[in-house]
Design brief:
6-stranded mixed β-sheet, 13 strands, globular, D-Maltodextrin-Binding Protein, domain 2, 5-stranded mixed β-sheet
């Protein structure tokens, strides 16, 4: 039967049959809408408590969070997050690896539920995500070629000597460099830690900057580089020291509160130490007691 014939035949159906069909379709649509709406309304905390899979987003940032074989979530922030998720109700995670600059947009787009990349708590970020209370404290470091040929020991040195400076896109060190007065055309922003390493190693940049652990991990594996020693961090700047945390969407305050409740006893505990010691986390970088995300968001 041709399409035109099927249409002509249906036009002769009794009106009562048409009305019943439309009513059934309407009920089905309402049912589907209710199910979809209920799923959308489910909070992240509910998903965790129900043992559902939680998607964690992170970049390649050693030792905070980075992918292993088959994207296995490695790094001490991932280790902490897995411990806390287990305490709250789930052991199921789906790792999602993204460039650092794509983490917050990815969270907004629903690509993942939590950012575990070791992101510092900064006021401008607090407008876009909810942070847990801090999980570490980091003063940062400067990466230079072996022997420190430019004799660099501070951001002021970079500025005063007109040196080319490399750091990761969206890292706190970008804002620090700009506030110190390093010229924009001297600030090279790259995708992540490996790119910072290559820029300094090949001479594209004179100095690199990043978190203490990241820069230390680079020199441990590359004897052509070193961390500037001594290093004088910028003074009286809200970005120093950096306090990292786990980040959530703005509408998931209940999940943040649940994480914070666990963190109170977890941070600095033997359980935490057992999970993070292999990544080089030490008591020296534990967050200061009493410092909260609320305080840091107002700095």
């Amino acid at each position: 039967m041709c399409e035109r014939s099927k249409g002509a035949r249906s036009s002769n159906l009794p009106k009562r049959g048409i009305l019943k069909g439309l009513a059934a379709l309407g009920i089905a649509a309402m049912t589907v809408g209710f199910v979809v709406g209920s799923a959308a309304a489910q909070s992240l905390l509910d998903k965790i408590k129900n043992g559902e899979t939680i998607r964690i987003g992170f970049s390649n940032e050693i030792p905070w969070a980075y992918p292993g074989k088959d994207n296995e979530p490695l790094g001490y922030v991932n280790a902490m997050t897995l411990d806390i998720l287990k305490k709250l109700g789930t052991t199921k995670v789906e790792p999602v690896v993204a460039e650092w600059g794509s983490l917050i947009p990815g969270l907004h787009a629903g690509r993942f539920d939590i950012i575990t990349g070791g992101m510092n708590i900064l006021p401008e970020r607090c407008r876009n995500v909810l942070f847990t209370d801090p999980i570490d404290r980091d003063p940062g470091a400067l990466l230079v070629r072996k022997g420190n040929p430019k004799n660099v020991h501070s951001f002021d040195d970079v500025r005063d000597k007109g040196l080319t400076f490399v750091t990761g896109t969206g890292w706190a060190s970008v804002a620090i460099a700009q506030k110190i007065g390093i010229a924009d055309d001297k600030i090279l922003q790259v995708a992540g830690t490996p790119e910072v390493q290559q820029a300094v190693k090949t001479g594209r940049a004179d100095v690199g900057s990043g978190a203490y652990y990241s820069m230390k991990s680079l020199v441990a594996k590359d004897d052509t580089l070193e961390v500037a020693d001594p290093y004088t961090p910028p003074q009286n700047m809200k970005e120093i020291p950096g306090y990292a945390a786990i980040a959530f969407p703005l509408d998931q305050q209940a999940a943040v509160d649940a994480f914070n409740a666990v963190l109170k006893d977890y941070i600095g505990s033997d359980e935490m130490t057992k999970s993070v010691v292999k990544y080089g986390y030490t008591k020296a970088t534990l967050p200061d007691k009493g410092v909260t995300a609320t305080q840091l968001c107002k700095r």
